[in-house]
Amino acid sequence: MKKIINLLKSFLLIELLKGMALTGRHLFSRKITVQYPEEKTPQSFRFRGLHAQRRYANGEERCIGCKLCEAVCPALAIKIEVAEREDGTRRTTQYDIDLTKCIFCGFCEESCPVDAIVETRILEYHGENRGDLYYTKAMLLAVGDKYEEQIAQDRAADAKYR
Amino acid sequence: MEAQVLGILQWLLSQVGLWDLVWGYLEPVWTVLWILIKIVVIVAPIMVTVAYLTLAERKILGYMQDRVGPNRVGYWGLLQPLADGIKLLMKEIIIPTGSNKFLFVMAPVLALAPALAAWAVVPFADGMVLANVNAGLLYLLAMTSVGVYGIIIAGWASNSKYAFLGSLRSAAQIVSYELPMGFALVCVLMVAQSMNLGDIVSGQQNGYGMLGWYFIPLFPMFVVYFISGVAETNRAPFDLAEDESVIVAGFHTEYSGMGFALFFLAEYANMILIAALTSVMFLGGWLSPLPQSWVPEVPVLGMLLGGGIHWMLAKMSFFLFVFIWLRATFPRYRYDQLMRLGWKVLIPLTLVWVVVIGAWMQTSYWLW
After folding, report:
1. Quick one: which of A22, A97, A108, B203 has the fewest CB in 10 Å?
2. Nearest to A80, CA basis, from A69, A119, A141
3. How far apart are the C-alpha atoms of B316 and B115, rounded to whole Å?
4. Euclidean distance between the first and final Cα of chain A, in Å?
5. CB contact under 8 A, B68 and A35
């Protein structure tokens, strides 16, 4: 008897029709695609995108050239040269990040004692020539100057978890 | 139709006083010219349909997978087929070393030509058919079988093992599924008592609307025919000839640019053909599902509800949708399962139904 029922079931294509009903229902379901350039997914304040160098409110750059980030960088993407400035403080003369080497682990940001090097939420950047993604100190400071408001907000939001 | 077209042409040319001159040249070749015009009128829309069927397929597949499908080229992605076409035209055609160049180039043509030639006998509406052949059904079976030569030759001429395996699979598959397809059509021609497709459709008109269509007495054959049609066009879930995960792209692995595009065209033209044939044989072609007596004598509404080419197109669209729906739903058959389904399920079923129909038609319970 069971055999006959199974035979009938397979000849009436019941399982197949069930499958088609499922895909048929999905035809009308809500689409989950994010239409990228127009719509974007929400980002965490811990998002690790393009790097930036920050300044204090008085315009003095934060970096003191301790080289902790250079030491911790697992991809060896950071190169720092340090010299004494006229006022006797220790400052970097060169601070380069090779973004083609960088793995965006965020260790540099973690290790920095003065929150000078940070990773921003910027993810849409590109280079059109070889070397465009080799960011020098001036470029990093420029990014920091441009997005300081957002960076400060994100640091503040993350502060209570640190 | 011919007289109206000639009339319009005559009126147009008479306006500039050229009619006598032009007709002097045209008259000897008019018959041929008229056939050529009809061919263009059939083939051009098929090509456009193929182009938009690819878009429809990607859209529907996308929607069934909770995506949105292509929507960047033109509004709602409507220019996508055009962009694809231009891309394929611009691409380099690579002819593999060690391939048979003549056959390699001929194979896509051999695949596409029968797919288009078969349309000659398909009636779109009452009397709207290119060639009203009495053995139309036989012609169709012949044409759909010839299509496989393109695939076999493509696989052999490519000098590639993947292409060769794909074409072997395709050959075996089409031979197996030709049989249930043929037997399903035997049932149709037994019931219709004719091999002329136009007569088959008129045979389904009996004053009861869709109750007179052959899919009711021949329901198992209707399903078998459509399944075999899916297998015959190498569509999912029977697309073993181009099994991506196993043999790269099957028979067209080595084709690029327009060669590949022609195979694509052939596959989709075949899909449309199977959709048209299923509607003609089983769903009453251009007939309206409403009984003749229910159709009101109102100008526009009466024309819409009465029979006509729009019903044919609607039925074809439905079957094309089912083609894509099947692809969205089912995983690909394993090769032995495919053969088992063809030989051990579909062929016995059709054989039984031929006998059942034969016996049924002798009794007084036969209403069609």
Report:
1. A22
2. A69
3. 16
4. 69
5. yes
